[in-house]
Amino acid sequence: MLRLHFGVDDVARTRFSGGGLNGRHLALGVAEALNSLHPRISWRSPVLEVRATGSREVRLQGCGLLLQCVVGPFQLIMDTGVQPVLRYPAQARDQAVGAHADPLTEVLGRTRAKALRALENELTTTELARSLGVSPATASQSAAALRGAGLIATRRQGKEVRHRMTRKGWEMLVV
């Protein structure tokens, strides 16, 4: 079991990324937010316990923690001079009771995951918006985020902006 010991400043310096939490979870408070991350993560103040392979005690000593929801296994990254990162597998909150989770949606969010899947075929921004049932502005924002992550490529063709999935995007779909 991995045990991360939090000091007074560590809770305030802890950040979340990768789509594991939303506003509803954060409104519940720190304890509920941390307990809702994954069935194998639990908060027992002042310790965050991760039931994963190996045994390790870590004292954060005021630097906080970055919690990243990823498609992949648990991983603790401790680099000197950088905030420690705990990567935890994306998982639907109800998966522990037998439901099937969509890790891609957990990491990217529903609209961006749908956009990535829609871009198995090259589409214009307008076509992407229609396929997602959203406005062209929302489709453009989703495309920009996916492009920023290297999951799609965009090219201009006359007045159209065309998007297609990159190799990295394909690899995300087959994980």
Q: Could you walk me through the main structural features you see in this protein, from its secondary elements to its overall organization?
A:
With 175 residues, the protein is α/β, with parallel strands linked by helices. It has two domains: 2-97, no CATH class; 109-174, Arc Repressor Mutant, subunit A, CATH 1.10.10. It is 35% helix and 26% strand. The strands form three sheets. A four-stranded mixed β-sheet has the order 3-4-1-5. A four-stranded mixed β-sheet has the order 2-6-8-7. Helix 6 (125-132) packs across helix 7 (136-148). It is elongated, with a radius of gyration of 19 Å. The relative contact order is 0.13.
Kindly state the number of beta strands: 11
What does the main sheet amount to? 4 strands, mixed
Shape: elongated
What's the arrangement of strands in the largest beta sheet? Answer: 3-4-1-5
Rg, rounded, reads 19 Å
Tell me the structural class: alpha/beta
End-to-end gap:
26 Å
> Helical segment tally?
8
Helix coverage percent of residues?
25-40%
**Proportion of residues in extended strands:** 25-35%
The protein's oligomeric status is single chain
Organism: Lentzea guizhouensis
InterPro entries: ArsR-like_HTH (IPR011991), HTH_ArsR_DNA-bd_dom (IPR001845), Metal_resp_trans_reg (IPR051011), WH-like_DNA-bd_sf (IPR036388), WH_DNA-bd_sf (IPR036390)
Pfam families: HTH_5
Keywords: DNA-binding, Transcription, Transcription regulation
Comma- or semicolon-separated keywords:
single chain; alpha/beta; Arc Repressor Mutant, subunit A; 4-stranded mixed beta sheet; transcription; DNA-binding
